[in-house]
Amino acid sequence: MKTSLKWLNEYLNNSIDLNVDAVADLAERVERTSVEISNTTTLARRQEGLVVAKVVSVIPHPDSDHMVITQVDIGEPTLTKVVTGAPNVAEGQLVVLAKVGAHIINHETGELNVLKPVKLRGEDSNGMLVALQEIGFDSKIAPKDFETGIYVFNSSDSIHPGDDALQVLGMTEPVLDTDLTPNRADMLSMIGTAYEFGAMIKQSVTVPDFDLVEYETLASDQVSVVVDDDSLAPKYAVRVVNHVKVGDSPLWLQKKLWNAGMRPINNIVDITNYMMLMYGQPLHAFDLDKLNSQRLYVRRAENGEALMTLDGQKRDLRAGEDIVIATDDAALMLAGVMGGLDSEVDENTQNIVIEGAIFNPSLVRTTARRHNLHSEASARFERGVNWDATFTALDHAASLTDDLAGGQVARGRVTAVDTKRENIVLPVTAERVNQILGTKLTLEDIAGFFKQLAFNYINNGHDIQVTLPARRADMSIEADLIEEIARLYGYDNLPVTLPYGPTTPGKLTEQQRKIRASRRIMESLGLNQAISYVLTTPQKAQQFAEDRTEKVVTLDYPMSSDRTTARQNLLAGLLEDVVYNVNHFVHDIALYEQGRVFIANSDNELPTEIEHVAGVLTGNQANSQWQHSKTARAVDFYDIKGIVAAYLDQIGVENVRYVATDRHVNMHPGQTADIYAEEVYLGFVGQIHPLLTKSQKLAAVFGFELNLFAVMSAAKSDVQYHKISRFPQMNRDVALLSDESIEHANIESVIRRTASNKLVDVTLFDVYTGENLPHGKRSLAYSLTYQDNEETLVEAEVNLDFERVKNALIAQLNVEVR
Question: Where in the cell is it found (predicted)?
Answer without folding.
Answer: Cytoplasm
